[in-house]
Specification:
Rossmann fold, 11 helices, binds nicotinamide-adenine-dinucleotide
Length: about 325
Amino acid sequence: MNILVTGGAGFIGSHTVVELIAYGHTPIIVDNLSNSHENVIINIEKIVNQKILFYKQDCRDKQKMDTLFSNHQPDGVIHFAAYKSVSESVDKPLLYWENNSNSLLTLLEMTEKYETPFFVFSSSATVYGDPEELPLKETAPRKPSTNAYGATKQTGEDMLQTLCLTPHSKTKGISLRYFNPIGAHPSGLLGELPLGVPQNLVPFITQTAIGLREKLTVFGTTYPTPDGTCLRDYIHVLDLAQAHIYALTHLTKINSPTYDVYNIGTGKPSSVMEMIQTFEKISGVSLPYVLGPKRQGDVASCYADVSKAKKDLLWQSHFSLQQALIDAWKWQQSLK
Ligand SMILES: NC(=O)c1ccc[n+]([C@@H]2O[C@H](COP(=O)([O-])OP(=O)(O)OC[C@H]3O[C@@H](n4cnc5c(N)ncnc54)[C@H](O)[C@@H]3O)[C@@H](O)[C@H]2O)c1
């Protein structure tokens, strides 16, 4: 299938492009490079050993997107392009609404106009807010979001759902709710490129280990978890990338209008302290860290029930936490 990958030069998008090719599909990347670099395209080409179709353009540019849909008639869209910093979205909510919602709206308009059969949307476990029951099932309620980023993911899911479930809809859709993507491509050619101070634990760990940051702060040690630090569901980005191909394949088997949501995680929680200790073991580096207060907005525990994805999409994660950290560390070292 021809698959339009918006945000395909980004962290998750670039790994998904590699996987799409491995499964015999033809990706078409659209990215405005607002949070990525053209080198990523060159590195994807090195890994897959072929030329990649890449358009440096903005998903909000209706005219250009129309031309692209008209020229390529994609069979499916995987929509990654969005701003993704929770804290930035607290400071600049309208920036997030403007980019995340208008990009999606433009794509859905094109999807409707060109009757694109399949659409996969990048959602997030953040739509659940502070969970009442763990592991999190897709049936858990979505809580009102405390930040614009999370709110754009909730409305993004709703926008796709309403389009897919209109009686005349030609588009079948899935929202994938990612837990915590980590790791990098084992080649050391692709990975996460956080701008400024990383918001996520693993890039902070690897940047501290390589000497870019003086020390790591463990935010909160009195949570109701086995060691008092937060529990999260860390998933290797290549496992996450594969989930998109399984989601597309699943949609090809359904003959009526459909929309659904799936958790994409490992189902296995790991604490911040476990992450530090595992990283020290795989890298041989002793991490300088201090224990600090809780961070506002952090929930104690968040991990997925992944049985629905396993049953319907026939997908499950394979990479270990150790492997994800080995790959993240290799990526950090290659950036030197
Ligand atoms: N990384 C995570 O922890 C995480 C967790 C849950 C959900 N998500 C979602 O997954 C998606 C991908 O995340 P990522 O980590 O790969 O982010 P990323 O920033 O690395 O990739 C996003 C890409 O989209 C591009 N982009 C942004 N706005 C654009 C626009 N208007 N037009 C064209 N390109 C645009 C950026 O240049 C970037 O290359 C995002 O929607 C994000 O919200 C990410």
